[in-house]
Structure formats: structure tokens, C-alpha cells
């Protein structure tokens, strides 16, 4: 590979090549030719982070002043823990006082050692740092993802450099991990016309009462979300249980919203009033195409057994006939709730159920509620048995694609009991079980099953029988076109 000819390849191809080369090895190839130099620069500056105010951050800011470097930045992570310290520096008696004294006690000296190009130590003042941040963040022409994690004590106003990228970069995805108190400074944020995806990870700062948080959700966060005219994907997670029903009640119909991801806290009050959540879903009955649900217990509180009751109330009256994809992380969601939710979206064409080991009885219970239009199913992990294959063929005969996360295969399912050898080793598979599985399956043939593609996401169970494995399935399912292992 010599000269500039490799650069004639499409940019996306070179990105894929870079992904296959370990970053350190790629840096070693930087001087080979212009192609590898370009790849190494893309690898180094595609994703950057500002977290701690020190020499490393200042060097990065200095490099990003070069437009040749700045144009490579696509993803920016901002962890502005230093904001409060910067703002407090305004209280210095002399405005020209340097940040040297402010950070000396933390051993974060904002200086460079002498070099040929910089023979003297460089000490940056507060004004210089803020101005440098604004100048750099206004010169990222290809920045498309912006992640802000701001859970430090709140400030009276939003620092100007945090909003600078919205004015100058075509940001399509915004991720906010913030306390509700800090959200008060968020609105209004200018120039959100390019924004398509919003990921919210919220937590209370325990500085306000319930009424105060209700006001922020209804009068700050809801108007902020409503101003994103082209929003098509919304993700919402909570660090701990919180009544966010004022948000759902205050949001207008988001006309382009087609993807919604919700994480439900296991402990009460979960997401607050379930009726408000149901009303929000029903308001988007004509636009919502993709719904992702999972439960979490980030606060490590006492798991509330009433989660099933909350989900029953929230989804009982839901009618979203436009939904085509339903994803559920079922690890912490009761089977009865999974069954309820699946049954509410009978028009779904794709269903994903992952997160914990599902027994044959649970698979039967859930698949009994799916709609007739289901074309694609991803499920698991499961212990695959001939009886489970029977269930798939009978319950979803028109299924076109089946994606199975398989831990083991067994010749016969004993009332959902997990094989003993699984407890002995996570990766163990008795090959005699595989042989007997083959014997049982060869007695079966699913002529009426429309399955066209069968994918094994985790193929431990097939062991070393890959060739026989393919022959087995093609023999059992005559209409099968493709097997992915």
C-alpha cells in the first residue's frame, strides 16, 4: 500500500479497517503512508472527552485549535466537574489571578514544561481557559454526538461553553446525565434543529422537595423536549425511583417520535402515575414504531413486588397500533408482566425478549400472547430442547426469522429444570446431550413452518458439530433458507 491511492476508497471502508486494527498498532503505523496517518488521526480524535482541568485537557484544547484536527471530532463527552471551580475563581481579588493557585493544592497545575516551541512555562488564567473552550467548541464542524454528564452542585446559570456546540455543530444526538436541579439552567438551548435523538439519565440532587421537582419536570424539561421539532428517538432512565408523571402529562404530542426507550425502576414509585405514562403512549399511537422496556434497580432499594401491578395499570389501556418493534429486557420484569405487555402490541412484527434464562414454561406462556403478524423473534438465553422447537413452530408458524441465544441443548426438557452441568461450569456442554438432541430432532419435520432464517446468537450448545448442525436444521425445516452460527 503506497502513495495516495488507498485514499480513493470510501471513507466508511477505511473506518471499518481502523476498527480491525488495535489502536496502539494503528498509531505505530501512522508514518507508513498518508492513508494510515489519516486513519490514526481519525482513531485518536473521533471521540474526545473533557473531564478534568489539567495539562492533558489543555494539550487537547491546543491541538483542537488546528482545523485539520478539529474536523475529525464526531463524539464529545463533557464531564464539567471543573465548572464550579472555574466559576468560583471569579471571586479572586484580582481578575488576572491565574488558575495556578486555584488548582495547586490538587496538583493540577495548568502549565506546560519548557520546550523548543514554548521555552517558557505557560500559566493560563480563568478568562483564557473559558475563551479557549468557547473557541474550540465553536470549531467542530462534524460533531454529531454530544454527551453531557453533570451531577455536580448546581449553578445559577448554564456555563456558556456547554451550549456552544449547539450553535456551530450539526448535533443529531444529545445525551444528558444530570441532576434535576441542573436541568433548571438548561432551557432555553438554541439551535436544536438537527437533533434527532435525546437520551435522558436523570437523578434528584436531594436539594428540593417533591413540588420543586414537579415544577422542573413540567416547566423546564417538558418545554425543552417540546422544542426539539425533529425528535424521533427518546430514551429515559432514572438513577432512582421518582415520580416523573408531571413530565409525561406536560409533554405535547411529539409528531416525529418513532422510537421510545424506557427504564422502569423496580422500587416504588417506579415512574409515578401509571395513567400518565399510558396517556403519553396512547398520544403517539400513530407515530411510535419501536418501544424498548426494561427494569433497573440502580438505587439498590427494596424491590417492590407491586411492579407487576404498576405495569398492569400502565399497559392495560394502551393502544399503539403503529408499533412494529417491541424490545423487552426481561431480566427483572415478572413473566406475567412480560406476557401482558406482549399481548398489548399484537401488530408488532419484531419481538426481542432477552436478559435472563427463560424456561420452556415461560416461553410457552409468552408466545401464547403474540400477534399473528410476528415475523422476527430474538429470545434467550434458553436451554434448547426439541419441545421448545415444537413450541416455536406451533405458536408462531408464520415467523420468518428466529434468533436464539442458546446456553445449552438438551434432548428433553424436564419441566424447565436447568441441566445440572450448567451449574458446574457456565460454558460446559455435555456432547452426549447434543448427540441425543440430534436423535430427537431427526424424528421431527416442520413442513408448515415458514421459518426462513435461523440464527444462533450464542452457539455454545452446538459444540463441534457445526456441519451436522446445519444439515439437521435444513432437514427439519424444509423452508429454511439461511442458518447463521
The helix-and-strand class reads alpha/beta
Termini separation? 34 Å
Main-sheet strand order equals 1-2-3-4-5-6-7-8-9-10-11-12-13-14
Enumerate how many helices there are, as a single number.
Answer: 20
Q: Tell me the total number of β-strands.
A: 14
Poorly predicted sequence stretches spanning 5 or more consecutive residues? 92-114, 419-425
Label the overall shape: globular
| Average pLDDT metric | 81
Q: Per DSSP, what share of the residues sits in E-state strands of 2 or more residues?
A: 15-25%
The value of Rg in angstroms is 27 Å
Helix content: 25-40%
Largest sheet: 14 strands, parallel
Tell me what the structure shows:
The protein has 485 residues and is α/β, with parallel strands linked by helices. Helices cover 36% and strands 19% of the residues. It is built from 20 helices and 14 strands. The chain has helices spanning 11-19, 23-28, 34-45, 55-64, 67-70, 83-88, 99-104, 126-137, 160-168, 180-183, 210-226, 245-250, 274-283, 307-316, 335-344, 360-367, 386-395, 420-424, 431-441, 466-476, and strands at residues 47-50, 75-78, 145-150, 173-179, 197-203, 233-238, 259-265, 290-296, 325-329, 350-358, 376-384, 401-409, 453-459, 482-484. It is globular, with a radius of gyration of 27 Å.
